[in-house]
């Protein structure tokens, strides 16, 4: 589900699992469509995860999100998601 007036925003978050990212997106109004996508009325997001190196011996999970939606809704939504993701570590 996309609309021609929608915009794309790509963001990456480290130290959060894809499963937890989906849970946070659900609290923001999304419904999982499959393991890699959630959708809401006026936005959607595709998720992927990878392991990234941080320094010589430390690795973290990085979740990459591609948000699509109405820019008036999307920008505050991404900020709210980012705040939740930053608190994920405790």
Low-confidence residue ranges: none
Shape: elongated
Strand percentage: 35-45%
Report helical residue fraction.
25-40%
SSE map:
Layout: E1 7-14, H1 18-27, E2 31-34, E3 37-39, E4 43-54, E5 58-69, H2 71-86
Task: Characterize this entry briefly.
The protein is 29% helix and 43% strand.
Would you mind describing this structure in some detail?
- This protein has a single domain, classed as 2-Layer Sandwich (Ribosomal Protein S8, Chain: A, domain 1), CATH 3.30.1370.
- The protein is 29% helix and 43% strand.
- Strand 2 and strand 3 form a beta hairpin.
- A five-stranded antiparallel sheet has the order 1-5-4-3-2, with helices on one face.
- It is elongated.
- The relative contact order is 0.27.
- The chain has 90 residues and is an alpha+beta fold.
